[in-house]
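User: Here's a chain of 373 residues. Predict its fold as tokens.
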Amino acid sequence: MATKRRRGDTWHYTVKRAGLLPKPLYLSFDDEAEGDEYVRRVEALLDRGVVPEEFGAKREVQKSLRDGIRRYLAAQHVAADDRKLLAIVGNRLPRELALAELTFAWATSWVSGLKREQNLAPSTIRKHVGALARALDWLAGHGDVPFNPLRSLAKGYATYTPEDVAAVATVEGRAKQDSERDRRLEEGEEKAIRAILGGAKPEGRQRALELHHAPALRLLFDMALESAMRLREMYTLSVGQIDRKRRTIFLDKTKNGDKRQVPITSVLDALLETYLEGKGAGELVFPWWDGDVDRKVLERTTSRLSRQFARIFDAAGSGDLHFHDLRHEATSRLYERTQLSDMEIAKITGHKTMAMLARYANLRGSNLAGRLW
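Assistant: Prediction complete.
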């Protein structure tokens, strides 16, 4: 708001706008009503980012990337992981970075900084870029940026070049590399894990693990192997999402923000028949989550279950196995035990692109050989 004061018979106004006006405007009027109206019109223009021509070149305030991200998050359903990543990206980029500055040169410079200054793993860089790229797609669609420069990055942009490696060496010593997990269940491991879940005493210990909700833990383990679902997708299930007649689990909102239908195998259907007996459609399938969708509540539940299974796997002699490895095992089995296409498997597992399933292609090498002349 402008300030005004009366000096003798004249009204004096001072208008300030940091970042828009290089210096305050000092205006004076003999008539107060005339002055109020003029200053009101000037401030209305300044509020829209327009400097009146009589006070300098007409221009618009540069919209910042931070403001753009805030509008995107407010207007769109954004996956929790993307929200977390965008908070990190927004905090690490300059506060006043304008959308008009987001050129291809900026994009390549930013990615270079993620490698040379932060030494992030290539997979982490791809996640940062992916989250911001989805925000910029929305902003481009609403006319805030002419194009999304992140979509022009060359394939392999997250991989460290020799120049990147040399730059990191001067600061931290060694550049990060992709470390994609390919851990599968080895011979005898599934049997050993089922034994622990069934109450068997671990080798070298005096007593069995104390497992609260043991039947639920067993079903969760089986569901992971039979469906390739993510941990959170499973423990947040309600009974009403499971249609045994159609042998389908309906996921309303997944990690990627999409709906998905997961077919139920005959093995899982038999287990669900027993486990769900007497449960109503509005009840939760598993006992560890109370329905609170707060991100921190979900993260704590995921962490607690991951630690519980880490204890179980360790007791079974598989200390390096993670619960998420079961999703990789289940996806591998879909390739090995079925003739489903990549697209059909992606619909089951929820992988966003076919590129994400490329690592499983070698599991069907023998099938390809059998189809040749």
